[in-house]
Amino acid sequence: MTPLHGVEALGGALLVLAALRDLFQSVVTPRPASGGARLGRFAIVGLWRPWRWTALRLRHVGRREGMLGSFGPISVLVALMMWLVVLVLGYALLLDAMQDQVRPRPAGFGTSLYFAATALLTVGFGDIVATGGPARFVALTAGANGLGVFAVVITFLYSLFAAFQRREVQVVTLEAAAGAPPSGVSLLESYALAGILSDLPRMFERWQNWAAEVLDSHLAYPFLAYFRSSHDNDSWIGSLGAVMDAATLVLTTIDTGATTGAPPGLRGWAKLSRSVGGHCIEDLVISFRLDGERYVGVELDEYREARARLARVGYALRPEAEAWEAFQRLRSEYAGRVNALAGYWASPPAQWIGDRSPLKLRPAHDGHAGDDGARHPAGGDGRRRRQAGRSGTGGR
C-alpha cells in the first residue's frame, strides 16, 4: 500500500466513524447529543433558515403553510441521505486504498464509489468482487452497516411520528377551549362558561405531563420541533404559551378562594404545570441557541381587558395593582423565550404570543408571522412593548 493509499484509508475510516457516530447520537441515543458540528444538526439548522426565509415570502398562505409544514419530514430524509452519502464516500476511499484486493481492479475512484454503493445498499451485482481479506471485511461491513442504517431509521420514523401524534392530540383538544390561535384568557373563559371549573386542575395536570414529554422528545430528537401542526392557526408553541398564560393568570390575577366553583387544588396544579412548562421552554431555547430576552410582552391596557373578560364570566379577581405587579414578574420569566420559539418556527400569531403586528392587520398579513418575528418577537412595535414591560407602567 502506497502512502497515498494510506491517507485514503485513514480518511475513509474517519468518514465512516463520523457518520456512524452522528447516526448513533441523532437516532439511537434517547437524550440530547453534545457537539454542534454534526451532520444531523446541519440537516436541520443549516437548511431551516433559508427554507423559512423563502416560505415567509410566499404570498399565498396555503402554499406558505405547506412549505413550512413539509420541512420536518424533508429534514429527516435529508439527514438519511447525508448519512448514506458520507458512508458510501468513506467506504469508497477504503476500498480504493485496497485496489490490489479487488477484481477487476478499479479503473478509478468512480469504480470504487460504485462498488462501495452496491455493497452498502446490499445490491450485490457481482460485477466487482473483493478477493483479499481486508477488502472482503470492508465490503461485508459496508453491507451490514447498510442494513443496520435502514432498520434503525425505519424504527426511528415510527417513533417520531408516534411522538408527533401524541403531541398534536393535546394541541387539537385544547383548541376547543382556548380557540385557534390559542389564548390563555379564552381557555379560562371557556371553562367558566361551561361550568367545569372543577376540571381545570386536571387540564393543568395533563399539560404538565405533555410539557414533560415534549421536553424529553424534542431535545433528544430535534427533528420533532420542526413538525408543524396540521390544523390552521394551531401551534404546539402557541398552545404551550396559552397554558402558561392561563396558569400565570390563575396564580396572579384570579382569587381562587373567592371564585364560585373553583376547586381548592387549582392553584397548586397551575403552579406545577407552569413550572414544568417553563422548564420545557427554557431548555428548548438553550438547545436551539435562541435569544430568550426577559420582558413582559403585555401592556397594562391589554391586561385590564383580560381582567374584564375574566370578571364577566364570574371569576373573582385580586386588586389590580397587586395582581399586575405579580403578573409582570411571573410572565417575564417565560414570555421572551416563548416569543423566541414562536418567531424561530414562524408560528401563527396568538394573544400575547409570537409576532403580534399581524393581529391588527390580519387581512394584509393572512394572520401569519413576518420574517422579522425572531428578532422582534412582540411584533412590529415589539421594542416599545418590551420597554413598557420593563418599566412596569404598561403605558403607551
How would you explain this protein's 3D organization?
Helix 1 runs antiparallel to helix 3 and helix 6 (184-193) packs across helix 8. Strands 1-2 form a two-stranded antiparallel ribbon. The model is unreliable at 358-396 (pLDDT under 50). The protein folds into 2 domains: 3-153, no CATH class; 179-391, no CATH class. It has helices at 3-28, 39-55, 61-96, 109-120, 133-178, 184-193, 200-220, 236-252, 266-287, 300-312, 320-331, 335-344, 362-365, 382-391, and strands at residues 102-103, 129-130. It is mostly helical. The chain is 65% helix and 1% strand.
Key descriptive features of the protein:
396 residues, mainly alpha, 2 domains, 14 helices, 2 strands, disordered C terminus
Number of helices: 14
The dominant shape is elongated
Q: What is the structural class?
A: mainly alpha
**Beta-strand content:** under 5%
Total count of strands: 2
Poorly predicted runs: 358-396
Give, in spatial order, the strands making up the sheet with the most strands: 1-2
Query: How many distinct domains?
Result: 2
Q: State the helicity in percent bands.
A: 55-70%
Specify the biggest β-sheet: 2 strands, antiparallel
Quick gist of this model?
The protein is mainly α. The chain has helices spanning 3-28, 39-55, 61-96, 109-120, 133-178, 184-193, 200-220, 236-252, 266-287, 300-312, 320-331, 335-344, 362-365, 382-391, and strands spanning 102-103, 129-130. It starts with a helix and ends in a 5-residue tail after the last helix.
